[in-house]
């Protein structure tokens, strides 16, 4: 556990005459940068904290990376879809060869939608269901559509556009 209030030993020895109070009062000083760096390591939450990945070779992409592969086309069944939680994206295929993608964030209270079944995107928290064609709510309590995510098909890969 990092004690961010305690300056690292090297900053004290590099600037021995600087008091702790003056170090934290100086904006942009080298000692301040050292403190920030010392507190920044060890935790990776950029992908939602899921270190397991999906095993599809697209695990290096972070949510929002343009041109990042998020799935392969054969992972998305026709008339259904699949949730790629590591990318916070649900990809659907309403008709063969037509792919759509939406944010997994439910528009009701923000739970992540967790599956596509019976031809609808499902939220586990309060039962909202969304269209696989346009993300619109089919059954409440959500009243707004899921945010659409721009994608394109590149060979067998679905990538963020
Ligand atoms: Fe999805 Fe409530 S958060 S239905």
TrEMBL record:
SUPFAM superfamilies, per database record: ISP domain
Superkingdom assignment: Bacteria
Residue spans of biased composition, Low complexity class: 57-68
Alphabetically ordered keywords of this record: 2Fe-2S, Disulfide bond, Iron, Iron-sulfur, Metal-binding
Cofactor(s) recorded in Swiss-Prot or TrEMBL: [2Fe-2S] cluster
Region of interest (Disordered), ranges: 44-72
Pfam families: Rieske
Domain Rieske stretches: 67-160
InterPro entries: Rieske_2Fe-2S (IPR017941), Rieske_2Fe-2S_sf (IPR036922), Rieske_Fe-S_prot (IPR014349), Rieske_Fe-S_prot_C (IPR005805)
Job description of the protein: Iron-sulfur subunit of the cytochrome bc1 complex, an essential component of the respiratory electron transport chain required for ATP synthesis. The bc1 complex catalyzes the oxidation of menaquinol and the reduction of cytochrome c in the respiratory chain. The bc1 complex operates through a Q-cycle mechanism that couples electron transfer to generation of the proton gradient that drives ATP synthesis.
Identification of the protein by name: Cytochrome bc1 complex Rieske iron-sulfur subunit
Source organism per UniProt: Nocardiopsis exhalans
């Amino acid at each position: 556990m990092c004690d961010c209030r305690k300056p690292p030993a090297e900053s004290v020895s590099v600037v021995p005459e600087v008091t702790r109070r003056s170090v934290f009062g100086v904006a942009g000083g080298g000692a301040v940068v050292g403190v920030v760096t010392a507190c920044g390591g060890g935790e990776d939450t950029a992908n939602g904290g899921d270190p397991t990945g999906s095993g599809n070779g697209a695990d290096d992409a972070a949510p929002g990376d343009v041109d990042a592969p998020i799935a392969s086309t054969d992972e998305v069944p026709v008339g259904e879809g699949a949730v790629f939680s590591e990318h916070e994206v649900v990809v659907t295929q309403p008709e063969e060869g037509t792919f759509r993608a939406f944010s997994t964030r439910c528009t009701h209270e923000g739970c992540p939608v967790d599956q596509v079944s019976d031809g609808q995107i499902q939220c586990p928290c309060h039962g909202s269901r969304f269209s696989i064609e346009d993300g619109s709510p089919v059954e409440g309590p959500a009243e707004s559509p899921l945010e659409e995510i721009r994608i394109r098909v590149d060979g067998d890969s679905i990538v963020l556009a």
